[in-house]
Amino acid sequence: MAQNTQLLALLRDLSAHVDEAGQERIDDFFDSVCIAHMLPKARRADALKLAKGRPSAVHHFHQPASSLGKRSWPGSTTTQGSPRLVDRPGEADVSDSTGSNENADLLDEDLLRSSHSRATGYVGQNSEVQWLRSLKTQLANASLRAPTHNLPYAPPGSGSDAIPQRPYALHGRRSASSLNDLLHVTDSTFYLDSDHLDVDVVVDPYKLPPPDEAKLLFDCYMNTVHTSFPIVPRAFQDDFNEFNNRMRQRQPCDLFQKWRAILNLVFAIGAYFSHLAQTQSQADGRVHLIYMTRAIRLLGLDKAPIFLSAPDLPLIQATGLLSLYYLIIGHASKAWVIVGISLRFALAAGLHLRNEDPNAKQHRKEHLVQTWWSLHAIETLLCASIGRPCVISNDECTVPLPHGFSDEQVGNASQLPVKTAKKANLTSGSISRKSMQGYSDDRDDPWTPSFLVARVKIAVIMQKALTKLYSPRTASSSWECVQKDIASLAAELNAWAAVSLPEELTSLHSTIQHAVPREQLLLAFNYHSTWLLISRPCLCRLERRIRGQSNDSATFNNNTAEACVEAAHAITRLLPDQPDTAFAYHQSPWWCIVHNIMQAIAVFLLEISFGESHMKNGGKEIAKSTKKLIRWLQHLSSTNTVAERAYQVTMDIIKTGAPRIRIDISDILSEEAGDSDRSHPFPDMHTSATDSYPPHMQEAPPMSDLGMGFSGDLNNPLLFGQQAHSHWFLSDPQYLMLDPDLQLPLTFGNPFMTNFDQPDILQDTNFYDPAPYYYYYYYSIRVYLQSVTM
Prior knowledge:
Residues 335-408 form the Xylanolytic transcriptional activator regulatory domain. This is Xylanolytic transcriptional activator regulatory domain-containing protein. By secondary structure, the chain is an all-alpha fold. The chain is 49% helix and 0% strand. Among the domains are: 1-37; 91-187, no CATH class; 211-395, no CATH class; 448-664, no CATH class. It is built from 28 helices and no strands.
């Protein structure tokens, strides 16, 4: 017996020095020995046959998913050490943290350690940033030959014995790792929250662009963003057109501060889109910061009292637009904070409840509904991107879904069809297939749900998936319960797709052969992105984490993981084979296209690191799809800083992960080197920094005007001298509210106080001009090169 014990100990030591196939064989042997000693003599033979029948890792690539499962082992033990019942499968004895969404209820790093980590903040398990971090950890452990088998995982439950075991299990897995230093979220993020948003010109909040430029920026916003996020009503466009015409004619008109702030945020989003898409009216890459700064100062977000003021609709809409702006420029953490403020303003105004005010007109109610669901959609997208919780769950909202009519129909209540009485709402926490269909029980009905209705419904499903699969409370659920939630969410998502999308856009294997309407394409991106979130928990080596799971459980895990990879392929097929700027910014969801691409890339790289073990065909197309998405990031990087950062993170993982990550990127690296050689390393030495802005933004206002914050134009009595009689053109009375501008000292630090809010007390124009420094630097390099070659 002593010799047997020594041999077993030796075998266990050797398991750390063999490959994965050898580790699996050693683990199978230990399982068979344990079972044989635990069972009565009469049943040892059957147990040994069962253990020997389990496929080893060598055969995992060729056997069907059903062979990966293990029957319930009579007499085996649970994680807590108590005997398991004969009919209790292994998936019922491990918690949700067994899947890829492990540690959802724990924080494993100090997020307050540095300014960079504080700017990035908490990133949850459903974020592709965490997926990339997990991948980098796996690759680091694999290179150090850390064990991947028999790692501890806590049991389910919310009792006093189950909860303490979860941190112990985490520490056990961490101690098994060979990494000396924990990889941080900041090492894998591609968002830009740690970058400073500053400008080098004095900002006059009351200045506006010329009428022609204003029209172009406004149209950029309305044509590319408004349909998906109708935060402001269409009547706002009529007001803007009237105002812009008066500006052309230099007629007197007055704008209230919140209306002006909303307009500047629209300009900021339009300017950033114009820069990304490189349109004919393309704006400089930093002009959007001017408009954002004006809006912040007009709203008073650089003053503490604004957060204590009573909310009104313009304030709700302005903060919602500011959140959308931060989202599109890649500052996801700031966007999440601001949309939370906007939603709390909306909650204070009761926008989350059904409005039964008998005095409210129908179009007014519909505008409130659309504003609420726009904020909901922004928050859901941000929570999916960085993994943070939502402000309010769907169960606590009774606001109905939007009607899905044109503004002309909404403006006239008598034109609303009778079927509005059938519209679904969110009074209950679940959405059945019938309610998913919303307005029509017959697909042949010519009146189908609108894009906005479909957009809202899939956002509701996505938020439900985030809550059920990734919230901290799911750690107390068993893996068996998680599998049921995944199946339920998948059925709900497919029911939505059956009504909202054509079959060619929902199939995981079809290829788009013709042009697709933009609205359908936007919904298709949402559909496959939601599929990734629902199926992602199964994309890991669950067969190594769950002992004694049933065949049905193993089959479900493998099929769901395969569907996750196929959903990533589907996202890839939505994009043309050759990167196209016009498609990216005029057809796709350009405000989150990098998020969608990185979701798919993270899934591909994870599956490659697993040896394509979940794919029946061996995953032959994974490397091809990954390279296609990398080329898209490379193409978008020319104007999109988020894409550039994502490209760098991806290339770094592939280069450091070789040979485990088997993707040939030599051609991409050679192209990158060629592009670098063709680009000049130094900027124009004779161009001032302020010259990059449009002419009307390059000059600072006179010092006499800085104290009041008004430019010379605003002091012109011809334009702005008729305040009491000049706001007649604003069609919506909500914008006539004018709150007092409180000038109080700050008590606490404010995140909206920026250095570019201060006047330029140095009137020397050369103060901002970096040309002399660049020239001196360039000259120094030439002198150095001449010295080393002599």
